[in-house]
Amino acid sequence: FSLQEAFDAPKAKITDVAWIAGHWQGEAFGGTIEEVWTPPLGNSMMAVFKLINDEKTNFYEIIIISEEDETLVMKLKHFHSNLKGWEEKDEYIEGKLIKIEDQKAYFNGVTYERVDENHLNIYVVMKDGKQVSEMKFAYEQVME
Q1: Residue 6 confidence (pLDDT) above 70
Q2: Is 77 exposed, middle or buried, given 0-12, 13-18 or 19+ CB atoms closer than 10 A?
Q3: What is the predicted pLDDT for the residue at 7?
Q4: Is 26 helix (H, G, I), strand (E, B) or coil?
C-alpha cells in the first residue's frame, strides 16, 4: 500500500503545467545543474537534466510529464555521463499527479513551482537508506 493508492489523481491536461517549459540553470551537489523543458506537444512535455562538476558532466536525466488516464504522470530515467542507464532497461522512476494549484504541481516525490517569470523551484524527495529528506533545486531562466 502506498500513499499514491490512497486517492484518485485529479483530472489534468499537459497544458495545465505548460509554465514549467524553459531553459533553467542553478547550483546543487557542488556544481551547476541545467534542466531544459519543452513546451507541451503531443500530450506531453520532455526535459533533459545534467549535473556538471569541475567542468565535466556527472550525470544526465531524461524526464517526461504526460497525460495518462485523464491525469498527469512524471517519469524519469538517470544516465551516467557515458549514457549508461542507472535504472534497468525497462524501469524508470514514476510520480503520479497529486494536485495542481496556481503555478505549483505536486507529483508523488517531486514538486514543480514557478516562482515568477525567471525562477523555477523543483523539490525532490530523496531517500538514502531509511533517511528521507526533501531537496530544493532553485533554477533561474537562462536568457539566450
Answers
A1: no
A2: middle
A3: 64
A4: strand
